[in-house]
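User: I'll paste a sequence; please echo it back and then give the predicted structure.

Assistant: Echoing your sequence first, then the prediction.
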Amino acid sequence: MKKPENKEIIVSSRVRLARNLSGLPFPSRLKDDRAHKIAYDVYSALGGENSPFRLYYVGAEDVTDMVVLKEKHLISDDLLHNQKYGGVILNESDTVSVMVCEEDHIRIQCILAGDHAQEAYSMASEIDDALLKRLPVAFDQNLGFLTACPTNVGTGMRLSSMMFLPGISMTGQMPTLVSSLLRVNMMARGVYGEGSDANGFLYQISNQHTLGLSEQSILSEVEGAVNRIVDHEIDARKRLLSSKPIELRDEIQRSLGLLLHAYTLTSAEFMRAIALVKLGIYYDFITLPQKGISKFERLIINARPASLQTITNNDLSDDGARDIFRATYVGKVLREIGVK
C-alpha cells in the first residue's frame, strides 16, 4: 500500500523511449531534406490528422510558445534550439510528447502527475508499438535499439521520477544520496535534466544505462529506489523539524509573506519560496484549501518566464518588468485560493 505522502513527494513520473530510423545518420549528422520528412512520417504513423495528436515544427511556431513547452517538460532544450529540423507531436492532454530530431530521430515520452510509472510506461509502449509497425526502426539483435548516446543503447528507455526533496536537501544529505544512486547505476539531476539546477528542491531520479536490462527490470529497479528515497525524505523531514522547529517555521512563513506581498520576485526567489510554502503545508504550518491544490501546483509552472508571457499581453522580455508582474500574479493567485 502506498504511503499518503507519496503523492506529495513524487511529483511526476516519466518514461522516455529513444528510437532511430535505420539507414539514416543520427540527427547531429542529418542536415538535408530527409530530416524535414521524419516529423511528418512519425505523425502519419500515429494516424496523422485523424489521430488525437498534433504536429508542431519548432521553427514555424512562436518562440515563446515553444519555451512554454520546455517549461512544461514537453520538449528539451536541445529540441528548442533545433529551429531547422526539430518537431514535436503532442496529444490533447499534454501527457504524451514525441520529439523528432532531438539527439535521436524519435524520442517518445509520457509524463503523468504523481506516482504512476507503470501507467506512463504502458502509454509510451503503445505509441512505440504503433511506430515499430510502420517505420524502419534501427535495431540490432545483440545490442537492442541503436541510439546516438551509447548509454541509451539497449531498450533505449529512461524512467524518471520528479521528486520534491526539501528534507534531504536541507539536512545536507543530497551528496550522499547522489553517491548511493551512482553505485546502482542511477542518477539524480536537476529539474530540467542533466546540467540543470535543482530549483525548488526538485530532482529527477532516473536509470543511467539500458544495455543488458529489460524494460520491466528498469521499472522495478527505479521504482524500488524511488520508494526508498520517499522513506528517506519522510525521515529527513521529521529530523529537520525536531532539530530546528522555530527557525524552520520562521523561514517558511517568511517565504509565504514574500510570495503574498513582494513588489518584485525573481524566478529563483519564487522557486525557493514556493517550495518552502509547500513544505509548510506538509507540516500544517500553512493552510491550503482542498479546492486550491490544482491551482497551487500549476502556479509552479505558470510563474516561469515564458509561461508568464502567455498570461499577459504585455511585453515581459525585460527581466525587471517580468519580476514585477510575477510578484503581482503570484500574490493574486495565492490570495484567490486561500493560502494562509
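Residues 18 and 189 are 19 Å apart (CA to CA). The mean pLDDT is 93.
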